[in-house]
Amino acid sequence: MRADIAEYFLENQDRYFEAILTHLKITGIAVVLGLLVGIPLAVLSVKKEKLSQPLLHTFSLLKMVPALAALMLAIPLIGTGLLPAVIVLTLLTVPVILINTCLGFQEIDSAIVESAHAMGFGKAYVLFKIEFPLALPLILTGLRTATVEVIAGATLAAYIGSGGLGLFIMTGIGLLRWDILLLGGGTVAALSIIADAALALVSRRAVQYR
Amino acid sequence: MTMDLNQKKNDVPVLKFQRVAKRFPNAQINAVNDVSFSVNRGDFITILGRSGSGKTTLLKMVNRIHEMTAGDIFFEGENIKNLNLQDYRRRVGYVIQQIGLFPHMTVAENIATVPSVLKWEKTRIDTRVDVLLTLVGLDPAEYRNRYPGKLSGGQQQRVGLARAMAAEPDLMLMDEPFGALDAITRQTLQDELVKIQQKLNTTILFVTHDIQEAFKLGDRVIIMDEGEIQQYATPINILFEPANDFVSQLVSAEDAVQKLKVLRAGAIASDLGFQTKSGDLRIDKDVYLDKVLARFFETRAEYFVVTGKDGQPIGQISWEQFKNFAQFRKDGVDSKKEAV
Fold first, then answer.
1. Number of neighbouring beta carbons within 10 Å of residue A3
2. Domain count, chain A
């Protein structure tokens, strides 16, 4: 079987690397968009108590929708291809980033924030110089979970025509070819592990002061 | 004696409360009710009260962490409502029990925050950080670049104190700063704070629930209960002339030895009334009375000459007078009152 994988790999190198690139592109865009949506929403929900509960409930609910179901739902709404995949995966990353960022802010010792205000620092200074750095470890935890989830989710996105490593898995299943299936699946697994380890390293560096 | 000094400089009080009240949203009664008092430059004022007495609320209205709901507070003659909040807060140091150091910044960065925002030059900031660390008893070379999480509670609060003093504030607010420390560390820091205060002539407003601490540190003590000032006087006046039953009960719980531990020689010294001789035993006015008692026993002296800041004689304490005083008989301080 090992020979089969190698052979298939050599014959389809271009498609393989293109699939990895697409996979990473989908993941990257979805995660970045997820951060851009999730973090401001989290800050909003921490600062405006009235918004906190509705926001958190909405996104907790969203978190319960399985990735595959969400992707299928996207077809009638936004069609097929890369764009709907990115939109759906972004929506999947928001809850975990939002919730972790909220936790990160809530766990900051209120005495630290009170001290900062009492020292005459404005809201923006306190937010960017004090609160963000202190919430960073949990924001990074959220980022890490979200990234791993999206790498897995992007595999399913192949079903709605976005491309990526999911294509190899689909092809493998369709043709009952274990070699293609393993090549696709193994690469997705490897990407997940690498991403997780890399972000774990970043997280550890972020809390060196502890 | 410090009072005389203050009265000379007493152009405008550093802080003045005028009929200040605070009611929290949804509360039935005022947390602080119709409070008026003033604090002069160089005063070390302690605010003593039980939890719920309004003492912390009182303190936190000064730097507008809590907003008053009635009355006015004046800082160096200006209504604090008219001052730019951020500029004003940078002139008021703030030290709290939870310390509140920024854990992601080094000790030096923590201390440098306000000077940096005030755009001090880097060399000036660096010098200031070293001066302050030395002042609070931490070796700059060793502690500058450490993170707060790696320090003990006592060391952290030393840094907290240094940070609050960084931009040479006109007023320091301290909310039970030593409340979470062990007894030995607390005593050390109390003694050092007194020394620092005397050296820099800083104006301090210090909240505590510990009567020992309040009397030991305060030139004058504000006793709070049910949101109102019960008495605002020197420790010795509070001990001998409690303003009402509440104060009376509060101080009667303290035994004679405890009282000796919180009063200083200067407070009970009477008029000198004679020329000092070279053989006279001298004692500094800031020595606590329990130490004075010990020295009476050690030296078997009949009296001590009490000396002021520059070592000049400012009064005397005789053994007779001390004995009467230690029994908390009124005649123990009668002569002192004439002196003041």
1. 8
2. 1
